[in-house]
Every structure is written in structure tokens, then in C-alpha cells.
């Protein structure tokens, strides 16, 4: 057996026990861990063609996996002006003015990461930027990627001059009392009205942006991701990168099922399952049950403070329930975006009905789960539904004093139930962690840190939002290793350092279990190993 890689003088961390294994070295062959032992025994397995690395006491964890990520759309959406660092309208105006000065005549301005909190109590609209964007076609994506602001010129070029009706129940061209668009577009169907008239990057440019984003993710310590879309050229890009040996993450891809999907569409989704290559495969279906709280398109059991967030994404939620049943009977796992309490409850009801009619055994998931009441918690464990959560959203888009847009919309009681990671885990649920990139940054150490400290990343001196919902260091590590493997049905071959398991590994300069949460994002990632080959290696090792 040829051992391609040998790692010596390592501290091998087991996320099940939270302890270091007694062995100090491992060998890799055929993309799998082929041996564990002491340095002398494992070194003896190397030959002249083996890559041997002395880690000098560095910590090796199973490869870190992001449980919710959008690689292709993220690579596209994060191209342009980054507005995520702006905290008030003046900063946004200044950033836009600088970008406008650099624009060629007639060119479009694209921005992303805009936080609705910059508007304070004022409406989210383009009016504060009219003087800067006069005559400039501009699209400014809000941080949730479910809404955007379009400048007057962009709306004019797209022929959008009033309200529209969409199949997506929560999609909307927001208009003032006179019926004139304010610039705010809610959900994909409305955003696409303007996006489709904007200049589009070439296919080669999109592929290159994706490849660069994936390389950066590997350098941050990620070995895998659960990709929550398969739109456009996504699968073709993965196939091309994989065939060329340029895919640095192992990807599990879930194509979308949107309102309006008929019987043939569901059958097509079922037939698509299992398509893939060496490092990617289609496994599961992504469905939306609602939108977001920040833009009033979540589905809540009681309206928000503006009287909004009262509708499901599906005009008839029972159609969603029927489709869940069809996919369940076909053995297809589903991942449903459900942010509001009514949305989460409906998903759980649908899964329960599917299990009653078709047995158990399929691992369904709920994505986001931003606010839920007490009576919902225990149902995740009872039904075996995985809670897929993104704690950095709580850290960076809400505040402990509830003065942020998300909390104000919900009111004190519901804002006090923000991202109940601790309660869900204590109730017996599997809590999978992810970033939802490009909504929040993808570095996995930052995601694990946020699950522990729940403080704003930009200012860690601020109070945590719901510190009683924090996870321990070990629980956070499990959320991106063993729990990620379980969610993918791969616990028999992934998520642990064991002979026969995949050689997907993350090597860190310090122990993630003893490093303070606020310092964890700064721990150097020394090596990332995917399928037995390094996809990132720091110059120091």
C-alpha cells in the first residue's frame, strides 16, 4: 500500500470525546486514513514518494465542514463594492460616491452586504442615496441576499415602474402610497426583474471567481460544504473543477424546489440525486418556507411590528407538505429554509406527516431557525430533524439590547428567543453549524467562535446576544465535524480521525477547545487536507 502523506508529531483531536488520541501520527493512502500510531511506526510506512510533514505538536481535527454555504452564487454576489463594513448612512453614501467616481460612463454599480440597520427607524429605500446615484444604474444587495435596492436608473432600464405580482408569495416590488417603486425589491422573483438587464460576467469569469473563492475557503480550514443551491452553471462548474483536480472542497449539493414545481419537476429532482464526481454529489433538495425577518418576508405566527411577515413563501403551504411527502417516500433528504416560528412549525408538521405515511430513515433539516417558541424545541429530536444554524448571523446582525432591525421587528419576547442553539442541543437535537456565505463570512474558526461568544465580530467588547444560548467549544467543533457528517449520512466515513475514514483534515496551530472564543478566529490554519492531498499549506510547515 502506497502512503501518499504522513503527518508526524501531531495532536490528533477526537471531537466525540474532546480528547487527544493516544497516537501521534497518521498515514494516508487512497484518500483514506490508512494507519495511526507513534512517530516511529508511521514514519516507517513512508517511502521516497511520500510527503512527510513534522507538525511539531500542531492540532489535527477532522476536516471542518460548513453546513450551509452558497459557493457559486456567493462568488458572484460578493463581486463589487463591499458595504458590509458600513454602520450608518453616511458611510454608505461615502462608499457609493467613491465607487461612482471610478465607474466608466454608463457602467453599472454593484454593491453587496448592505446592513438594513444603517437606516435606523427610516424605511429601507434608495432615497438616501439618490444624490450619489443620480443617473447611475446600481444594484445594492442587502446582507440577507433576499432583497436589494435598485437605483432609479436601474429601475428605469428594467421597465419597473410599479407593483408586480409573483408566484413567490413574499416577493414584492415595494412601492410608496402613489404606487412608485421605492427601490426595495424583496425576494428573487422581484430582484430578477432588474438583475436580468444588468451586464453579466462571462462564464469564464464566473468559473474563475468560484475557483478563487473555494481556494480561499480551503486556506481558512474548510474541507467541505453543504451547498444549498445548484442554480445555473453550478453543477457544470463543480464537474469541471473536479475533473481538472481543482476542486478544493468536498461538496454536497442540494438543488432548489420552488413554488410552482409540478409533478414532473419533483420527479426530475429525485432523478438528479446521486449525480456527481469524485468530490461532489447531488444529495438532497433545498426548499424555502419563508424569507427573512429583516425585510418582513419571514412567516411568523404573529405579525412583526410593521404588520408584516405573515405569509409563507409558498402561496399554498399544503403543496409544500405534499412535496415533502413525495421526496421523503423517494428517500430524498430535504433542507428547508425556515426562519420564523410559523415556518419552522409547518416544516416539522410536514416531516411528521411524511414519517407517518412513509416511515422514518430520511434525515431532513431545517435551515436557520432564528426564533422559535418552547413547544417547538423538543420536536426536532423527536422527529430526527437536524437543526442547521448560523450563529454568526446572531452575532453580526443583531444586538444584545435589541435595538437592531431584526429585534425591533419581533419585539422583546421573540427577540429573546434568538438562535436557540443551546436549547435545541439540550433538547437532543443535532445542531449543525454553518455560515450561509455570502450572508456571513465563511472562515470556520469564526463560525465556531461565534457559536461560543455570540458577540459582534466587529467589536468583541460588546455584550453577547443571548449568552445562555452559547455552545461549548466541543459542541461547536462537533457542529462542523461529527454533526456535519451525520447530517450528510456519512458518519461511518467522515467526521472523525480513524483508520478507514476519509483523509479530510484541518491542522491548527492551537487547540480549538482551549483557545478563548474571542481569539479562535486568529488561530493559524497550518494545513488543510482533502482526500489525502494538501489544498493549503502554510509556509511555516
From TrEMBL:
Keyword hit for Chloroplast: no
EC number: 3.5.-.-
Residues of the signal peptide: none
Gene3D superfamilies: 3.10.310.70, Metal-dependent hydrolases, Urease, subunit C, domain 1
Entry keywords, A to Z: Hydrolase
GO MF terms held by the record: hydrolase activity
Recorded superkingdom: Bacteria
SUPFAM superfamilies the record matches: Composite domain of metallo-dependent hydrolases, Metallo-dependent hydrolases
Enzyme class, first EC level, given as a word: hydrolase
Record-annotated membrane-spanning stretches: none
Domain Amidohydrolase: 52-535
Pfam families in the record: Amidohydro_3 (PF07969)
Protein name: Amidohydrolase
Naturally occurring in which organism (per UniProt): Streptomyces solicathayae
